[in-house]
Amino acid sequence: MIYSTSQIAKRFGVHNNTILHYEAWGYLSKVERSQNGYRQFTEDHVNQIELIQQIQKLDRVKPYMKFVHQSIIRQCAAFDYDEALVSAKNYKLSLKNDQALEDQIYTQLNQINEVKEDDISRYLTRCEVDKFLNVSRHVILYWERNGLLEAPKGKNGYRYYGTDEIRKLNIIKELRQYHYSTSTIRDIVQKDINDHPISSFKDNLSAIEAIIKTIEKNQTLHCRTKV
Questions:
Q1: Is CATH 2.40.50.100 what the domain over 1-56 is classified as, yes or no?
Q2: Taking the model in full, what pTM does it have?
């Protein structure tokens, strides 16, 4: 069956320009034109757009994930389904590793006790934390301004960092090394421990499993149309 741009846009509940963007970005296989110049979309394109919308629902807890998503979409648009399946399965493995890290982080967060004002003398200054964790005080200040951490102030107005703050800073540092976004780290360190685990990885794992099945289905359907 052949679809016009408006027909396929209506089917997926998007604007015509969205479909044209998909084509321009390489998200769709080649779209043939009729004699009068109108685009002609096929069932392959329908399957590709279904996959695009599935992938777009994935949470991007790490910045690089956007490029992984785009890569899988473009591989399917090129009918390179075997490579797309490899990418999707590697992505799933990466999510499982991230979930294991998240479990470890929550275990550490669960061990952090509430700050006690009478223990202020045991705390380190920001400069001392800089040397202790090898994290620039400017970076620590940036994390504080973005809501990742709130250290108590002493009578002199300076912030001090005790065992709890040091642990949190170490967690933040570790998450940054794993390329977590600032907003995701903030969600993790501010989340109520009783709400663990954060749903992003769990939801993404379920979603990527569905995407793998969609890729396999599209591969089968494409092979049938070529016979």
A1: no
A2: 0.67
